[in-house]
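Exercise 7.
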Amino acid sequence: MPELPEVESLARFLAERAVGHAIASVAVANISVLKTYAPAPSDLVGRSVVAVTRHGKWLDLATDGPHLVWHLSRAGWVRWYDAVPSTVVRPGRSPLALRVVLDDGAGFDLTEQGTRRRLAVHVVDDAGQVPLVASLGVEPLAPDFTPERFAELARAKNQQVKGLLRDQRTIAGIGNAYSDEILHVARMSPFALTGSLSDEDLTRLHGVVQEVLREALAASAGRPAAELKDSKRRGMRVHGRTGEACPVCGDVVREVSFADSALQYCATCQTGGKPLADRRLSKLLK
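Solution. The predicted structure, written as tokens, is:
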């Protein structure tokens, strides 16, 4: 799933190419991705693009009328064309979900692979009308994400620190991958309870959150949309690297699996050398 660095880079990529152009056509290939009915996608046609921005992991293409707001979820992506194919968009089993064509012939597709379709597209008068956008927490690279604000959020509920980092209502934009990376750099167990963390721990973790996200954002800056996924994978230290060597200590990267996801960590760097039990098989070792 694309997270803050990739979504921000997609927003900048689209803004550079779409702002100032009018929307020539919008074609919906998979009606199930469309979560609103008024305004209609056709109400975007003829409107000029005035901005493309990010809200957490949501993208917001704003026109001088409605906004096209979407969440790529786990398997969605943006496919950019300097010249959009002339083939007619038809419903079917293709990954294509929605196509936007601009007045200069360029444009993009929203696509989604796999059978579990979670791509969500909204056409609204304001992005805040999307409930999940309205409920987003603080942006971790914003000025108001201070060490004091982070400590306040962490102290609000005693929970696993990985859950805190991933909760979009608390901190917007961090998902499974970057929470793994942040906790590895911070040398902290993903299942450490926030109530057990000292003020010094939280200050250090706050700094690592910003360090890891800024590093990833710098690595993705200026890259074409087609390269962002591979760039993200190459930059991962532990996430998605089960069985490989930890780049810090050389220990094997381990995994804890859940029903529909998994996390990766280094026992030497993060848990004092103690492996965490796979929750599918046994009770979690604290």
